[in-house]
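Protocol step 4 of 6: structure prediction from sequence.
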Amino acid sequence: MVGPVTRPAPRSWTRPARAGWLTVAVALTAACNSGAKNTSAPATTSASSPSPHASSASSPTSSLATGASTTGAGTCRAGSGAAPGAPGGGDVTVAGDIPDTQAYVAYQSPDGFRVSVPEGWARSQTAGAVTFTDKYSSIRAQVTSASAAPSPSSAQSTEVPALAASSPCFQPGKVTEVSRKAGQAVLITFRADSPADPVTGKVVHQDVERYEFWQASRLAVLTLSSPQGSDNVDPWRKVTDTFAWGS
C-alpha cells in the first residue's frame, strides 16, 4: 500500500509573485502621474511668463489693422479732420467735377495780374490773397516777392516741406515744370484735407495743384483744389492758361 504523497504549499511562491506585481503596478502609476505633471508644467509657465511672440503682437503693426494709412505727415484716419500738420483723413466721396458748360469771368487783381475763374463762385480776400470757392472746390491766388524764379529742385527742397508742415493729412505728389500762355510755371501736386466747412464742419480730402509763376522779382501762386478724384483737368487748364501779368 502506497503511503500519502506530500505536496508543496503554493503560498510559498504566489505571495512573492503578487508582491512583485503590486510593486510594478505602483511604479507604473507613479511614473504616469509624474509624466502628466511634467507635460502640464510648460503650459502653465508660458501663460504666466511674458513671451517675446506675445509682445510682438502688440507692436505698432497692430495700428495698421485699424484701417489707418501712413503718409508723409503722419497717419490719416478716414472720416476725421485735423489741424495743420497733424493726422487727418477727410471724406473722399464728395463729387467736385466742374461742368463742361461752366462759364468763366475775368478777375483783375490790384496786385497786377488777371485770371479767369468760374462764374458764380464766391470771392473772399484774406491775408493778401484772393480766393474763389464753390462747395469744396477753390481757386486761391496770391502775389509775393521773390528774388529768383522757382525751379522744380528749389520747390522740392523748400516748398514741399513747408506744405507738408502746414497741410493736414498731406500726401506728396509730383513737382514738375509746365508751360502756360504766361510762360513757364512750377507745378506742385499733392493731397490734403480741406478746411472745415463753416456751416457743417465737414472736411474732405482734396487733390491740389499749386502753380508758381515768376516775373521781375514777383511770384504769383495759383492754388487749385477740388475733392479727391474730381476730373478737373480741362477747367484747371483753362484757369491757368488765362493767368497773365499786368492790368
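Step 5 (inspection) to follow. Residues 12-75, 77-88 have pLDDT under 50 and may be disordered.
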